[in-house]
Design goal:
Strands 2, 3, 4, 5, 6, 7 and 8 form a seven-stranded antiparallel beta sheet that branches. The protein has a three-stranded antiparallel beta sheet with strand order 1-10-9. It has a single domain, classed as Bactericidal permeability-increasing protein, domain 1 (Super Roll). The chain has about 190 residues and is of the alpha+beta class. It has four helices and ten strands; from the N terminus they run H-E-H-E-E-E-E-E-E-H-E-H-E-E. Strand 4 and strand 5 form a beta hairpin. It is about 30% helix and about 40% strand.
């Protein structure tokens, strides 16, 4: 009888200790996805072309944008070369730099760049007065592209850490060169 009571008390103590450890964050675990992992996924996403203003502006993304993590702090920098045609004219190359946050979609178990915004554009062939219109069109294209194209997907057949992240992911943050996912059972 004493042995059963002792075991029950020990079990209760273990449960209380585990609950407190979870609550204090002692059982949290971090996993990381590198900038190269994200760039590889973006490279598989393919090109995109959109028309704005009933064909006034046509923006084409023919090559995958380059993603830098943690510059500026807590954000991703997006650099791309787009081809933009204004009012039926031949397309001109435009270099774009933008920023975005990161969001996780639990349904698809995927990470997406969140609220991307074009910060600057440059092109020798683009008229200065067209820049505000082009900047707006580029921001819309980026939002459309990254809303539907994940930058990283947690695979069911992936590593043990990826499988755990599919169920235990609690928070994400962008750091220089990587994404950190915080796993916790609570």
């Amino acid at each position: 009888m004493r042995s059963i009571l002792f075991k029950s008390m020990l079990t209760a103590l273990a449960i209380l200790t585990a609950a407190q450890a979870w609550g204090a964050g002692f059982l949290e675990h971090e996993i990381h996805f590198s900038e190269a992992d994200i760039q590889a996924q973006v490279g598989r996403n393919g090109p995109l072309q959109k028309s704005y203003g009933k064909g006034t502006v046509v923006v084409a993304l023919n090559e995958a944008p380059r993603i830098r993590l943690g510059e500026p702090a807590g954000q991703a920098t997006i650099a791309a070369r787009l081809h933009i045609a204004l009012l039926g004219q031949p397309a001109v190359p435009v270099d774009v730099v933008g920023t975005a946050g990161l969001r996780y979609d639990d349904r698809g178990k995927a990470f997406f760049l969140d609220q991307p915004v074009a910060r600057s554009i440059s092109s020798a062939a683009l008229a200065r007065e067209a820049e505000p219109l082009v900047l707006q069109a580029v921001s819309q294209l980026m939002a459309s592209y990254f809303r539907s194209q994940p930058v990283y997907v947690l695979r069911e057949d992936g590593s043990e850490q990826e499988r755990a992240a599919r169920w235990l992911l609690r928070a994400i943050r962008i750091e220089p060169g990587r994404v950190t996912a915080v796993l916790s059972p609570v």
